[in-house]
Design brief:
GO terms for molecular function: protein kinase activity. By secondary structure, this protein is an all-alpha fold. Helices cover 70% and strands 0% of the residues.
Length: 209
Amino acid sequence: MEATPLWERSKENAAPLERGRSVVALERSIAAMESEEDRREQSRLSEHYERLVRTSEALDYEASGDDDPLIHWLSYIKYHQDAFPSDTHSQFLLFERCLRALSPIQKYANDPRFVRVCCMYADKTDRPLEVFQHLHQQRIGSDIAVFWMAWAFKAEQQQNYQFAEKILDKGIRKKAQPLKLLLQRHKQFQRRMTRHWLNATQAEEENED
């Protein structure tokens, strides 16, 4: 079914003119008004989330009585991803701010929600392996399987296969949770490595022939 034209849906907002209105002009006018309303709403929501997260960025955030500032960061990140999907730079800065604000809070070190944010941040950097190493030194993510999986995945992407397996093995030794998922990913990695070495060996033999 054909969608109702914009001017038809909003004609109660259009004042009648003696000479009649141009449909195209009316469409443009209404679209501009709705666009402006959208911008105002986005600005209002951004300011709302900024007020919520700034509390945790303050040195005396504990005085605010907010038991879980992470929830505000997660809401802000989701809102930003939905409202501005193409603005990846601002999303990256938001991840970075979240890490700076919450990394010193011990209770978040192995909170799966925060660890996921850390992994997403590392994935967007130019040197993800260094970021993961830094997080590990801060004891962030040690008990969470997704941390080791994400770290190993970035190593594998860079063809650092031995290091990737070392990371997965270390996560398993630490019994990072859920351990079953980590073991499953380790088996998948080993299968990929088997295919990789078989293909490499076959290519070498063909070159020798």
